[in-house]
Specification:
With 224 residues, the protein is α/β, with parallel strands linked by helices. It has one domain: Alpha-Beta Barrel (TIM Barrel). 33% of the residues lie in helices and 18% in strands. It has 8 helices and 10 strands. Strands 1, 2, 3, 4, 5, 6, 7, 8, 9 and 10 form a 10-stranded mixed beta sheet that branches. Strand 4 and strand 5 form a beta hairpin. Helix 1 packs parallel to helix 4 and helix 3 packs across helix 5. It is globular and about 45 Å long.
Length: 224
């Protein structure tokens, strides 16, 4: 069985991250993972923190830095590294969405669109084949699932610094006919390899991951 991490952050890009990309790849290799999705935080505040006068292309490159560093190390160590993001729109700021199947062009496109509705952005992504998972939908009693804005829900998130109500997520997903996923939400050493998914085939693209979840041919990795 192959191990895939679906949710991790790098210190290069995410302010809450405590591990650089090369450290993440090394620790996941030691934990026996085969594929990593780099899902750094994508919000309007990221671009507001960049240097004044930077072009959209330069700011996109800054956002891609963690992924690019991780991929370089992954290519050398035999781990597949795939680009993703954890999107936070201005509407309902506690709702976060993991995006699988985006690229640098999307990072350029989204920069002046954070005031658009979550529904509008989901329809844009869905129309382009991007697989969208709402991350930790009930975290800390401050968020709820948003109907019609995700293909799946993250139902196992073992991040130790939050209360994630995984059982409640599973109940909601079952009621609405949505598949569920797992991800470590890794920021620090103690978060690494806490979850993800197991599959009989190695995941080598975002498209393969989306199809895997939609077809139910996986197991959620859990330390519990």
């Amino acid at each position: 069985m192959y191990k895939t991490e679906t949710h991790l952050h790098t210190k290069e890009v995410s302010r809450c991250g405590k591990l650089y990309a090369d450290e993440m790849v090394s620790m996941y290799k030691d934990a026996g993972y085969d594929t990593l999705f780099i899902t750094d935080h994508l919000s309007e505040s990221f671009f507001e923190r960049q240097e004044e006068g930077m072009s959209k292309e330069e700011m996109a490159d800054a956002f891609c830095l963690g992924y690019n560093n991780a991929k370089e190390i992954g290519d050398r160590s035999g781990i597949t590294v795939i680009f993703g993001a954890e999107l936070q729109m201005n509407e309902g700021k506690k709702a976060h969405f993991l995006l699988y199947g985006i690229d640098r062009d999307f990072i350029i496109w989204i920069q002046d669109k954070f005031d658009r509705s979550t529904k509008e952005i989901f329809e844009y992504l869905d129309g382009r084949g991007v697989f969208v998972v709402q991350a930790h939908p009930y975290r800390d009693d401050k968020s709820t699932p948003i109907d019609g804005c995700a293909h799946a829900l993250e139902a196992h998130n073992p991040n130790p610094r939050h209360t994630n109500y995984d059982e409640q997520v599973c109940e909601y997903a079952a009621l609405h006919g949505l598949p569920v996923t797992g991800g470590s939400d890794a920021h620090r050493p103690e978060d690494v390899a806490g979850s993800g998914v197991l599959s009989e085939k190695k995941i080598t693209s975002a498209k393969e991951y989306g199809e895997l979840i939609k077809n139910g041919k996986y197991e959620i990795i859990s330390k519990k």
